Amino acid sequence: MESKSKAKEALEWVYCIIIAITIVLLIKSFIGVPTVVKQTSMDPTLKQDERLWLNRWGATFDKMPNRGDIITFEAPSVSSVDENHVNYDYPVAEYNYTPGNIVSKFIYYTLEIGKTSYIKRVIGLPGEHVEIKDGSVYINGEKLQENYLQSYVVTEPSGGNYYDIIVPANTVFVLGDNRGASTDSRRFGCIPVDKIESKAVFRFWPLNKFGGIYKDVR
User: Fold this and answer.
1) 18-48: b or e for each residue (b if 16 or more CB lie within 10 Å)?
2) What is the pTM of this model?
3) CA-CA distance, 156 to 176, in Å (whole number)?
4) Residue 2: is its pLDDT beyond 60?
5) pLDDT at 24
6) 167 vs 209, which has greater pLDDT?
7) 81 — pLDDT class (breaks 50, 70, 90)
8) Is the peptide bond before 44 cis (omega within 30 degrees of 0)?
9) Which run of H or E residues covers position 124?
10) Which of 214, 206, 172, 170 minimizes the C-alpha distance to 189?
11) How far is CA 194 from the centre of its chain?
12) What is the predicted pLDDT for the residue at 218?
């Protein structure tokens, strides 16, 4: 009787652990998750080692983000499209890897093992004409007022080939705030909405920067 009681108690603990892990994974995958900034492409808006809270609710339903939102997304398979492979008719980032079975999908998409993500700012929306010229971004012929950028920042093609395009349906054109040191849509093209993982909502570390993330854009 005592051994059965201990076995039952151990089984209950196993159930509790499984339920707890499931809840954590569901929250991480569909609601939100904390993260640490590991890139310099959004400097000085976001600096390395700062802690952010990412909202994944919109990505769960493939909701189109707003201009100025800072998003994370799955890194494209090709980080820089050369001039021999540029597709101006469909300037969309390439994604060549698809997990082959349920286990590999769980490991890649849920546990995010072996997966690389980028963090950038949404600049162009579907159907818009995005043009980079004279050190600035133009949307449908009008200069975009990017008040979140430092006064000395200029926007150039930076070696990319996508600097005068129409944003395809269900995609967004993204740039890093650190324009001179960012691999972004200028190089790899627009990001499909279904590859967007989350939106950066607020910063909780360091404490002196605690709060929402500036995204004033006109």
Assistant:
1) eeeeeeeeeebbeebbebebebebbbebbee
2) 0.87
3) 12
4) no
5) 62
6) 167
7) very high
8) yes
9) strand 117-124
10) 172
11) 11
12) 46
In angstroms, rounded to a whole number, what is the distance separating the alpha carbons of residues 124 and 137? 10
For residue 91, give both structure tokens. 């300037």
Tokens of 79: 């980080």
Tokens of 126: 């579907």
Give me the residue label for tokens 């979140």: 148
pLDDT computed for residue 26 by the predictor: 62
Q: Which residues contact 47 (CB under 8 A, 6 or more apart)?
A: 37, 40
Residue 116 has pLDDT above 60, yes or no: yes
Q: Helix (H, G, I), strand (E, B), or coil: what is residue 180?
A: helix
Residues 162 and 183: beta-carbon distance below 8 Å = no
Q: How many residues does the chain have?
A: 218
What is residue 23's three-state secondary structure?
helix
Given a contact cutoff of 8 angstroms between Cβ atoms, the answer to whether 95 and 195 are in contact is: yes
Report d(CA 79, CA 53) in Å as an integer: 26
Report the alpha-carbon distance of residue 203 to residue 119 in Å, rounded: 14
Scan for tokens 């001039």, then name that residue: 83
Q: Which of 79, 108, 112, 73 is nearest to 93 (CA)?
A: 79
CA 189 to chain centre: 14
